[in-house]
Structure formats: structure tokens, C-alpha cells
Amino acid sequence: MSRCRTMPADTGTRQWFVYILRCADGSLYTGASCDVEKRLKAHNSGRGAKYTRGRGPCEAVYVESCPDKGAALRREAEIKAFSRAEKLKLAER
Fold first, then answer.
1. What domains lie within the chain, and their CATH numbers?
2. Contact, 44 vs 30, CB < 8 A?
3. How would DSSP label each residue in the chain?
4. N or C: which end of the chain has fewer CB within 10 A?
5. Spatial separation of the C-alpha atoms in residues 54 and 68, rounded to whole Å
6. 52-20-28-55 Cα dihedral, nearest 10 degrees
7. What would the pLDDT profile of 62-83 be if each residue is shown by its tens digit?
8. How far apart, in whole angstroms, are the C-alpha atoms of residue 80 and residue 59?
9. pLDDT (tens digit, 9 = 90+) per residue, 28-63?
10. For residues 44 and 29, what is the distance between their CA atoms, to the nearest angstrom?
């Protein structure tokens, strides 16, 4: 995935993020990406996840940094299992 930004040259690892979006209908979507801004643009243009198509515009309400892709995907799964109230509590931070 060369399109992902990398950390400083000495580490050679990519920076990954978990994010929560609030869609125009008030629903929440959780995802992981190495470029949240680019991914948000994709969601809002209809090229993102199937869930967000037709629910835009979306806004990022929570972004969390993760050390690598595996950690981001594990955290994404953990957050997806949260209740709506727990997700909103994260977004308030």
C-alpha cells in the first residue's frame, strides 16, 4: 500500500488510524485507514464504503492513531462492537 503516508524514515512503518464518521442521517460509521482525509473524501463522493453511500455528507467525529495496520484493524473491530452511546462517548473526547 504505497499510497499510505509513512512515519519518519528511521521507522519505516506506516501510520494507521481508526475513525468514526457521523453521517448526515445521524448514523455512525467506523473504519480504518492510513489517510483519513482521503478516505473521508471517498466516503463523501460515494466511492467509500457501501454503508456511507447515500448517507453523506459525513464528518469525522473521532480519529485514533494506531502503530500499524493490524492494530488499527483490531481496534476498528473493538469499536464496531461498542454501543452507539459508547461510540458517542469516544467522539466527545
1. 16-92 (3.40.1440.10)
2. no
3. -TTS-B--TTT--B-EEEEEEE-TTS-EEEEEES-HHHHHHHHHTT-S-GGGTTS---EEEEEEEESSHHHHHHHHHHHHTS-HHHHHHHHH-
4. C
5. 30
6. -20
7. 999 999 999 999 999 999 999 9
8. 17
9. 999 999 999 999 999 999 888 888 998 889 999 999
10. 12
Contact indicator for 48, 39 with CB cutoff of 8 Å? yes
| Torsion-angle region of 83 (φ positive above 0: left; ψ -120 to 50: alpha; else: beta) | beta
How far is it between the farthest Cα atoms of the chain?
Answer: 43
Cell of 71: 492494530
